[in-house]
Amino acid sequence: MNELGAILVDTADRVFQHAQKHLDGRFDAAVWDLTESAGLDRILLPEDEGGVGDAFPDAVAVAMRLGANAAAIPLIESMVANWVLSHAGLAVPDGPKSIVVASAGELPKLGAGGVLSFGQLLEVPWGSAVRTSVVVAAQEGDCRIVRLDQPLTGDTRTTLAGEPLTLANGHTRTADAVGDWRFDPELPLALLALLKAAAIAGAADSIVSMTIEYANTRTQFGRRIAAFQAIQHMIARMASEAAAAAAAVQRAAHDFGAGNSVFAAAVAKSRASEAAGTIASAAHQVHGAIGFTAEHTLHHFTRRVWTWREDAGNETYWYARLGTAALQADGKTLWSGLVSGFDL
């Protein structure tokens, strides 16, 4: 990590440490204000817009710290939305944002007069809680970026983490701004998937640390439960899964933007999502019932990794795409595809 990256991580830790007081999933306005003041949501913007350019490793590092502190703010969505707006030549307003991408099925349709139609079911985290939403849409075979300057309408629910979720389907909205997207239409989804994977990796590290501490203090049958081989086995598996997820995320962070970005994000998100299930399950087995109590912090982290696991495509979605790409690849062996990336 370079000097700037280290500064950003240190800043993120100091900002997100306040999030420990707000773990119920409600929008944490105080932490968001600190985040925006520090410019963390603008990392991926050009320097003249308050960012540091396409600094994907730095954005990943900040997303990992977000996960490590279970902060209830739409920072990942805002980073992706800001990056998309900038690359589409649109103005980037201040404030938190949501990003609307389709991991399956068709993109929302942009019609005459800037009317945007949400034809299929799209789950949009934070859609009703923020003023600005950015939509990756289709118009006559081309990709368009649509900015909406009002909260999304639709059936509002909550995620497993208690955060607001809008079901945007069967609704129409008029675009406040429209820009052309001249890049791979899947890049916004891929970037969102990469940063969600980073958040999982960060939270996984905190979950492993909590579990080790609990096992070293909880006594049963006259000794610490960390002394039992079954507990040791579960913690070892948790640690190995967390390390595998972090390694996949770090590799993708450096490959994103420099090569096959969608492939890099697919590997990171699928591996991190798979690890999320194993780590959360084992952590609750070690903690027992206390991990689910309102007073304990464990479930605030595990509910978030379960939620992030599904965001931007879960492991089933990305593994299927990776497998299909490998089977359909022409002129590439399995090994060469793994090294250089398959075209998804």
Describe what you observe in this structure.
- The protein has helices at 3-16, 29-37, 56-69, 75-87, 187-217, 229-255, 261-287, 298-310, 315-328, 334-340; strands spanning 97-100, 109-110, 115-118, 123-125, 132-139, 142-148, 155-158, 164-167, 171-174, 177-180, 219-220, 223-224.
- The chain has 344 residues and is an alpha+beta fold.
- The chain has three domains: 1-73; 95-183, Butyryl-CoA Dehydrogenase, subunit A, domain 2 (Beta Barrel); 187-340, Butyryl-CoA Dehydrogenase, subunit A, domain 3, CATH 1.20.140.
- A four-stranded mixed sheet has the order 1-5-6-10, with helices on one face. Strands 2-3-9 form a three-stranded antiparallel sheet, with no helix packed on it.
- It starts with a helix and ends with a helix.
- The relative contact order is 0.11.
- The model has no long low-confidence stretch (mean pLDDT 91).
Helices and strands, with pairings:
Layout: H1 3-16, H2 29-37, H3 56-69, H4 75-87, E1 97-100, E2 109-110, E3 115-118, E4 123-125, E5 132-139, E6 142-148, E7 155-158, E8 164-167, E9 171-174, E10 177-180, H5 187-217, E11 219-220, E12 223-224, H6 229-255, H7 261-287, H8 298-310, H9 315-328, H10 334-340
Parallel strand pairs: 1-5
Antiparallel strand pairs: 2-3, 3-9, 4-8, 5-6, 6-10, 7-8, 11-12
